[in-house]
Amino acid sequence: MIRLILAALFVFIFLVVSLPIQLVLYLIGKKRPDIKANTSRAIVQWAFRVVRFLAGVRLTVLGQENLPTDQAVLYIGNHRSIFDIVLTYPLLLQNTGYVAKNSLEKVPSLRIWMRYIGCLFLDRSNLKEGMKMILKAIESVKNGTSIFIFPEGTRNKGEDELQLLEFHEGSLKIAVKSGCPIIPVSINNSVNIFEGHIPWIRSVPVIIEFGTPLDPASFSKDEKKHLGEITRDIITETLKKNQELLESA
Known about the structure:
Blueprint lengths: L1 H16 L1 H11 L3 H23 L2 E5 L11 E4 L5 H6 L7 E6 L6 H9 L3 E3 L4 H16 L3 E4 L23 H6 L3 E7 L16 E6 L10 H4 L2 H22 L1
Parallel strand pairs: 1-7, 2-5, 2-6, 3-4, 3-5
Antiparallel strand pairs: 6-7
Helix pairs in contact: 1-3, 2-3
């Protein structure tokens, strides 16, 4: 229980205390949006590292050589836990926005930080708004901000970590239309930090692996229609491999 209390208390204090910082960054952003974006990323990454420390997550990161530093990409990951963003974001080396459910827009200070780092909000019940979000994501990538999306559409609550939900093919249009590389991201065992035994937070090992970038231009016209399925298969195989690592540790 102490881990949950400490993590929740830190998040609450951070969101309140950071309000004046958000105002300063807003004013800076009027003339120097690059400074606003880079500073926001550094602050949020620091906050997430603190949450990870308080949660006691024992993190192993593989494939860091595949992280880009000079071009925007589309990150595609499996999704089992609210900690998936907390764990992955501090690892990224450039400005990256996540596609998040629009209900998070209702959380005052949180929504500001999310907007500052380039996050986009998705209304899953509105197909038209979903298409608008895809277009915004394509524009973000073209402007140099990477996008991280969980194409299962929601957290996978199944018992078997290797049984991923269907990847929505529309998500991959961000890469096809912008021409950016796709980086598969496999996240093992994050569900056992919190969701596997709510309301407790437990110190568990987690493996995150960044896969080899995929170039959409290297796929045929027909393959481009199934990039979600292709990426899903790659992530599944990586999860299987890393699950064996966790079991043997």
